[in-house]
Amino acid sequence: MPLANPDIIQRLVDKFGESVTEFGEPYGMLTFSAPREMNLKVMGFLYNEQDLAFKFLTDLCAVHYPERKGEELAVVYHLHNLVENVRIRFKVYMPIEQPDVFTATGLFEAANWMERETYDFFGVNFIGHPNLKRILNVEEMDYFPMRKEFPLEDQSRIDKDDEMFGRGGSIDFGNREVSEEPKTISEADKDKTWL
Amino acid sequence: MPVVEQPKHRVLPDGSIEKTTTTLNLGPTHPATHGVFQNILEVDGERVVDAEQTIGYIHRAFEKIAEHRPLYQITPLTDRLNYCSSPINNMGWHMTCEKLLGLTLPKRVDYLRVIIMELARIADHLICNSVVGVDTGAFTGFLYVMQSRELIYEIWEEVCGSRLTTNIGRIGGFERNFNDIAFRKLEKFLNEYPKVLKEFENLFNRNRIFMERTQGVGGIAAERALNYGFTGPNLRAAGVDYDVRVHSPYSSYEDFDFTVPVGKTGDVYDRFLVRNEEMWQSLEIIKQAYRKVQEFKGKEADVFHADAPEYYLPEKKDVYTKMEALIYHFKIIMGETDIPAGEVYHSVEGGNGELGFYLISDGGRTPYRLHFRRPCFIYYQAYTELIKGSMLSDAIICMSSLNLIAGEMDG
Question: Structural domain of residue B364, as residue ranges?
């Protein structure tokens, strides 16, 4: 009998009762969440049970929801049962002041770098991770750039010396005035009364 | 000026004299890494004792940039992930958007996309396999197949105007219909390519030197490969027949008849053979798709996009003459179309594995969050396990046979 989403929900509810919540099926993929201290229990259950056998970790990433007070960060796991070809999405939420969650590296080797990436960009602290350090950004970085409070750099900044990159270059090499404050073109234009 | 007392000798780090192994930097700009990433190897003579990978040298923050761009402006970002097969990335992204928007495409568009994607797979595998040849000391194969890749690039050029970073297609279909020259170039490729591939296989497949050099090198068991998140040819070489095209068919792949080659040991030789066989299969798929495309007659033969005025750019002559077209043109170009709220994961079989797009929209004009599942980022972490205990030169061919693309790894 093929594994259907209602069966998975039933198994989860039988096992964990009211701890697993937020069941949904956006675009056909079963999605649910659990308290963050239970993430390993839930994933271990999904991994080990004969009929569930979600043994493939497709993806692991985080999402930042600044509006959800007390649970600003979500870690999202995409699991795949390759035999029955069923995918599910599992989320745990955590407060941004204390973004601790257990590592999944014990179950999946694949989680190692994915968790490092998630730590790198969102600052999620995976407890028990063998080597939790930055992976794509420089190690000296002291913030987590994918959080929503960090905007992209203003594309119209003109104070940067970008001559070498073919942007905003000028002929008088090295003689340009560099203002201390970051300025945008519109701010710079305010001084020009003729505009 | 105070005199700083200099030590008489350069002080070596603690423990470095007793050490019997050597630390060796392989990369980030070593020609054998074929990309910008670094391996710090601990070698005992020529044997690799331990390894650590450092990546991120060309990280460009695509996920952050994508949060500030309308959907159609994200396509050029996906070009730069696996740039050996950019059309697959482009199509994967379009299909993710189409899934979110609930668009269904005409069959002809699907088949045209299949042609483009399979060409991309061939281009991708050609590079990877011929580079394995180069790293084992056989440069000839590389030179033979480059000409065929050129033919593929010419087809893309005819369809979208560019070659490497293609930005091909639009949400809802293609930007223009394939012209006759494109089809003629496709026919030329279908005629010439089998001979080249056969010759390439003759050079390698039963070549004693190549076999002894690659067999039993960098092997991995199926269980470990799954645990490490392997996908694509690397997983199939280990004996698992997981292929996204078969498991979750997209773009009407269910209409095609093809086999999924699998290996057994997951070593360099098996990966090489699996890729070669996949190229033959891709060729079959392209032939079938081309036949299906030719079956469309009359008005149907001119269909190259879905009817989705809110997301698909209208024709220029309509923009100048019709009010609705003008409005939609403006809204699309300025990125003022609100996309429906939702959460969608879509994956395609990329050149080196399952390329996934996890898109969260909160109903705004740009994605709330977009995450790329980049296959080679995930399976590269197994590299240490693959090469531990092997010779240094085996570590090199193991790396090139994994099909690691720095652009995709760093995102």
Answer: 75-378+398-410
